[in-house]
């Protein structure tokens, strides 16, 4: 195949110029940034010809790159146990006891933290762009068991289209535990572009519950990545609730660095109008005895389109891997669509791996049963959808957080019924 | 009065009901008996408002008003209750949540205020106790993993809480052993009277030993071919349906 690059899009040209202009002023990680940029410069934005982006053609969806933000937001009084990143800049905050928090820019300048440590063997252009261009974010270190949840608010308070690339690096030491909640919100009607990367590095036996809420603006391009590296016997539950953004893509990369680690990845996606929401997972069982569970539920209304791509890799020596993945979609209208692509790449012979994908309308017999008891159709639908999405919340151990999530699902359904 | 007049019903172009006439008076327990394929379940679904059927002729009147244009939920609020032959499992919806939603939806449709949590709990606990339903079952997702008997008892519990004017019991005896049948029948009998009409649809006579009907209708090939007193059921048990099917 001839190695001819297509013409650069305006977005690609702008991003290349931006890196060259900003390079000398970016905090730390000089080598990592240069390498990541070189990969981007070589391949450009991924189009649908790149398999991992087949259903979310970023080259086409992001013709123009929004400019970087230069104005620094006003500091605000922090809420209890909340850290705030506004327009990509860490504004400070308050963390529960036992958690060390530093502005990422400072941690990078001091060389306390590396970028990409949680990516393992994975490589991704969206992550590369963030690595090359991120200016700030948060570095979090947890050395003990922390019961109280830590909230990180990613707020966009933009008056016009702009690009934000925050990064958060979280290290949870051996035997430590953390509950982390990410809240992403932004203004409607503004085509801002967000590329947020969170790296989670779990030491041996560390336990993390991670919840991510995407309530971005209705014109936003919301790209996000969770990169996870698991030590031996580490456990992670990560749940993503998606209702925001015009186009969203949430990627999860998991690398098993130690044996007997467990992950439980979950997603609850509710989209309508012409929204497009992509959940893409790459779970790399690089060592034996890893356990992975994935449960993704999508509720799609109007003309919205959902995407689920789940790739489970079991390396040749990763025996006794136990992986189970399910992606289910309920389509609430004729125009709604869902692309399900589960992929198992198994190179070991003693493993248990399974996947299942379904999509379809709500069950008419169940609806009739509920209606025959007096529930109007809209209420019957809401009850079934709530139950369908609600199953993903079962893994959230904090009752208060589970209620917050359930309430967000109800709110979405109420807005639909109106 | 629930009145069915000259009802003709098709599904996917296939005729199922063929000029059916039937009247259920307030306070009356009517039984419909018929062989498999005679259209009994179709009749129950059409009265309750299932959408898959095409009504080509005839009418269904509740107290003189046609209900054909009403959605299933509107018919429920108007006082029609179908106890399903195969109650649906609803994963993820706690039985209590469902009962509350159903009761309040019907109250709302009738312009009544919502039940207070206390009144609701009291009503459910009382009705569950009478039917021997373990309160733990009410916390579980509706009908999920319930035995055949538990599902049918749950139907009767709903019937008792929703207090309908007309109950249609579709093959309520199917899948029940004799003990479960007795409990369900007792539950139904406790709801007899007070002007409540009931239509008991069954293939076998044995249910009618426990729920003794006022009138028995025999259905074959989509219509009522004979009506009589409760002794008609006994006669059927002895001679079978063959004569009626041939005559229809």
Describe what you observe in this structure.
The complex is a heterodimer of chains A (about 425) and B (about 250). Chain A is an alpha/beta fold and about 425 residues long. Chain A has 2 domains: about 10-360, no CATH class; about 365-418, no CATH class. Chain A has helices at about 10-20, 30-45, 60, 105-110, 125-135, 365-370, 375-390, 400-415; strands at about 80-85, 90-95, 100-105, 135-140, 150-155, 165, 165-170, 175-185, 195-200, 205-215, 220-230, 235-240, 245-255, 260-270, 275-285, 290-300, 305-315, 320-330, 335-345, 350-360. In chain A, the strands form 2 sheets. In chain A, strands 2-1-5-8-10-12-14-16-18-20 form a 10-stranded mixed beta sheet, covered by helices on one side. In chain A, helix 2 crosses helix 5, helix 6 packs across helix 7 (about 375-390) and helix 7 packs antiparallel against helix 8. Chain A starts with 9 loop residues before the first helix and ends with a helix. With about 250 residues, chain B is α/β, with parallel strands linked by helices. Chain B has one domain (about 1-245): 3-Layer(aba) Sandwich (Rossmann fold), CATH 3.40.50.300. In chain B, about 40% of the residues lie in helices and about 25% in strands. Chain B has helices at about 40-50, 70-80, 95-110, 115-130, 150-160, 180-190, 205-210, 230-240, 240-245, and strands at about 1-10, 15-25, 30-35, 55-60, 65, 80-85, 165-170, 195-200, 215-220, 225-230. In chain B, the strands form 2 sheets. Chain B has a 6-stranded mixed beta sheet, sandwiched between helices. The longest helix of chain B has 15 residues, at about 95-110. Chain B is globular. The two termini of chain B are about 25 Å apart.
> What is the CA-based Rg of chain B, rounded?
18 Å
**Strand order, sheet with most strands of chain B:** 6-7-8-3-9-10
Counting DSSP H or I runs of 4 or more residues, the number of helices of chain B is 9
Broad structural category of chain B = alpha/beta
Count the DSSP helices of chain A.
8
Low-confidence stretches of chain B: none
Order of helices and strands of chain A: HHHEEEHHEEEEEEEEEEEEEEEEEHHH
Report the average pLDDT across residues of chain A: 95
State the domain count of chain A: 2
Number of strands of chain B: 10
Distance between the termini of chain B: 27 Å
Backbone shape of chain B: globular
Task: Report the strand count of chain A.
Answer: 20
Supply the CATH architecture of chain B: 3-Layer(aba) Sandwich
- Global Rg of chain A: 21 Å
Give the oligomeric state.
heterodimer
For the sheet with most strands of chain A, the description reads: 10 strands, mixed
Sketch the topology of chain B as an H/E string, one letter per element.
Answer: EEEHEEHEHHHEHEHEEHH
List low-confidence stretches of chain A.
none
